[in-house]
Every structure is written in structure tokens, then in C-alpha cells.
Amino acid sequence: MIDLLTLRIKNMVCNRCIQAVWNIFEKNDVMLDRVELGVAYLQLPLQPNQKEIVIKDLQDLGFELLDNKQSIIVEKVKNVIHHKFEHLDQDIWKNNLSVELQKEIGMDYSKISTLFSSVEGITIEKYLNHQKIEKVKEFLSYDELTIAQIADILGYSSSQYLSSKFKQSTGLTPSNFKSMNQKPLRKSLDELK
């Protein structure tokens, strides 16, 4: 049986990212086993000429091949958080995020937190809060849920607390944002820090 080569890839945040990465490897005749958020499993190692082209193609789409342990751990943290948001996994609000990350990454949370802060320049909690604000913007743009419903889905204690955090982050109240309905105010998830 052929040992699979595991490549870690930064900035994969959704199913479209998985498909884009799959297409890059397929276009460059790389034999894939599978692609998941942040990881490509190869059947055969990349040839040197393939690796250069794959790295460039990944960079052209905003991805990056990770090659050091610290970057890989930080990207795992981001992928856990992105996955929870993608599936609106409310356990992330009910359970302690530190417990979730320890379980997923297999390291003590204090080490994960220190590493994340040193690499990203912000704490995991601030990163999570940025993600939540972007999700609030998304929900407001769709104009299908009330502020109270959004607060409940995202684990805010009340709609007033959500409104306070939203204004603190964006300078706008959720109502002002909703009335402006300007999607350019939203950020891509891979741009958040």
C-alpha cells in the first residue's frame, strides 16, 4: 500500500475552497486521495516541478502551502472555528472552545492559545469574535432573521449585547447596517485576523 503524503494548506475555509484546491492538483496531474479543509492527501509525493507549479497556483487563489508545525497548528485552530461556523454548530457556544480545540488538536489549550497569539497577533477569542461579527453581517444581509434570532444562533446572551459588540466592531448598529445593505462591508473569512 502506498503511504499517503499529507499537505497542509492555509486559508481553506469552505467547500468551494476544497473544490478549488482539488482542481489545482488535478490540473497538475497530482494523484489525490482526498481533500478536506486545510489538508490534501496525496497518493504519491509531488515531483519538484509539480510542487513549484502547485505552490504558485495555490498562491494565485489565496492559498498557501504550510510547511512548519506552528503554522499547521494555527491553521487547524482556524479550520475548527470555520467548520463550526459553516455548520452553525451551536455546541461551540455551549461548550468551552478551549475544550473543543484541545480535543481536535491534541494539545493543551494554553499552548495552543500562546502559539496562536504569537503567530496571528491576536487571541483566539478575538479571532472568534471577528468571525461572529462577520456571520452577523451575513445574516443581516440576507434580511431573514431578527436580531434576537441571530443573537440566539450565535450564542450572544441578548440582542442588546450583540448590538453593542456589533457597533463596537463596525461603528454601526445592526439596524444601520441592515438599512445600508452594503455587502462590501463584509470581509472574506480568510482575510480576518
UniProtKB/TrEMBL annotation:
* Sorted UniProt keywords: DNA-binding, Transcription, Transcription regulation
Phylogenetic classification of the source organism: Bacteria, Pseudomonadati, Bacteroidota, Cytophagia, Cytophagales
SMART domains from the UniProt entry? HTH_ARAC
Q: Outline the extent of the HTH araC/xylS-type domain.
A: 100-180
Q: Which PROSITE patterns match?
A: HTH_ARAC_FAMILY_1 (PS00041), HTH_ARAC_FAMILY_2 (PS01124)
Q: Any idea what this protein is called?
A: HTH araC/xylS-type domain-containing protein
Q: Where is the composition biased (Polar residues)?
A: 171-182
Annotated spans, Disordered: 171-193
- Short name of one Pfam family for this protein? HTH_18
| Entry annotated with the keyword Transcription regulation | yes
Look up and give the organism this protein is from: Flammeovirga pacifica
The UniProt entry, under Gene3D superfamilies, shows: Homeodomain-like
Instruction: Write one Gene Ontology MF term.
Output: DNA-binding transcription factor activity
